Amino acid sequence: MHQSLRLAAALTAAVLVASCGTGAGPVKDPQPAATTSAGSHAGHFSAPPAQPLRAGERFQELAMPAQYTPKAPNGGTDEYRCFLVDPKLTKEAYLTGSQFLPQNADIVHHAIFFRIGPGAADEARRLDDGTPGDGWTCFGDSGVAGDTWVASWAPGANETLLAPNLGYPMPPGSLMVMQIHYNLLATGGKAGGADRSSIRLRLNDTTAVMTPLQTSLLPAPIELPCTPGESGPLCDRAAAVADVTQRFGAEVGGQAEQLVKLCNRGRPVTAGPTQHCDRPISRAGTVHAVAGHMHLLGRAITIELNPGTPGARTLLDVPRYNFDDQAIHPLGEPVAVKPGDTLRVTCTHDAGLRAQLPQLRGTAPRYVVWGDGTSDEMCLGLVIMTGGS
């Protein structure tokens, strides 16, 4: 997934896959409530009890090595920090579920977990040992070549539980990188308290009956101009892109243009609240669950299969997006995809929310493009599947 488009691994949140449910039809937003919360988007998190272990499974909890006090670099209000954790695997296992436990949910915006294979473990250790303090700065992906997304958390997600025969392969000697996005808008980027988050892994050592999962990311552009009542230097698109680049570096700053090239296919930028992107399927597979991710200006998101054709299907329909409800949605029945099919993600954002939401009031008006910050935006569909590419 993020190997095919590494920009999407800059995700500011999204979650893993839940077990497959029953029933049929597209996934719809179960509670079309408020677009986002009025206060801290994360709030105080209280984890419910984990579901019972199933045959072949065991729990393993991994925590950050020590408490960490984030401080945003480059004059921004967000820090992405990667921490190396070791599940100490001596034989192959499959990750069949996870429950992230944010210790300081007032500042934890989201978390992503990357598997580091045995062949890259030494590289990860060198990166960790060679960086002052705990962990390292990691806008985008983990910073380690060959990493693979295997778990994640965002507000509204609790325990992630996969179907019993589905999981992410974890070879012996694998490490994990815990990437945490700290949102420091409330403190203007300064230290906002310490955090020592953890994750409870659900591992299955009976690998003969397991089917490998992958998570495919479907990013789309954000080209959201200032409202007619707003003005300022960052309402200019070029200035806004330069600002993202200054805060997060050239790789993240270049995503706006990369997404235009990928999704518009030579057509010029068209500013507006709704954007989409199509991704062709190159290998046969089966979709088991879907999710969508935006930030605080998000209004609606959909994921469609073969839109505009007689066999079109809507896999995800969230007509009133709520940042605090980003749980993964299992499909009622798994959906087969084949070469020649197309997946489309469509997002609608609303720049008018900038003046309404407590977190964004007082932030400078800006032309919003893809960016890693809480005051920036994303349009990201997640498709959890077996096979496919």
From TrEMBL:
Annotated signal sequence range: 1-24
Top-rank taxon: Bacteria
Record-annotated Copper type II ascorbate-dependent monooxygenase C-terminal domain positions: 277-381
Keyword rRNA processing: no
InterPro entries linked: Cu2_ascorb_mOase-like_C, Cu2_ascorb_mOase_N_sf, Cu2_monoox_C, DBH-like, PHM/PNGase_F_dom_sf
Originating species: Dactylosporangium aurantiacum
Keywords: Disulfide bond, Monooxygenase, Oxidoreductase, Signal
UniProt-listed PROSITE patterns: PROKAR_LIPOPROTEIN
Protein name (record): Monooxygenase
Entry keyword Kinase: no
GO molecular function: copper ion binding; dopamine beta-monooxygenase activity
Annotated stretches, region: Disordered: 28-51
Pfam families: Cu2_monoox_C
